[in-house]
Amino acid sequence: MRAKSILIPALLAALSLGSARTAVAEEAQSAALFDAVFVNASPQPTSPEETARIQHLTEALKTALDKSGRYRIVDIAPLKSQIDGVKDIHDCNGCEIELAQKAGAQVAIVAWAQKISNLILNLNIRIVDVATGKTLKGGSVDIRGNTDQSWDRGLKYLLEERVLDGRG
Known about the structure:
The protein is α/β, with parallel strands linked by helices. The chain has 5 helices and 6 strands; from the N terminus they run αββαβααβββα. Strand 4 and strand 5 form a beta hairpin.
């Protein structure tokens, strides 16, 4: 298991400077944040460390989105049985939109990591408007190395450069 991540305190400190102004300027959107998915396209089996990293990715994303003031995460637990019936929430032909609607959310947020090898991975985030189905923000970043640090740096980049900066 991993020790307390170095990413969360540093990322939250960096984002908090701009988040107070953002929270005042715009009302937080209700968001259905689905658990991140691990897509293992490598010949190696998924390791316990990778399972822990994908769980951490979900938690770190939730914390950063909450802290930003731009998103208010809604409870999707009542939809657990329906969500569990979806193989890959990031690649389900828009089923995340219907599930987010049922949860009363304005946006659906999906994240996934794809492992090609222990050297090549990518992290992805997509935020979709529930009313229109249009992707509002998102991005993908390739990371080198399958370590806690590389995953943390990849998430930090996506949040700062693609999700919370106004571009996307």
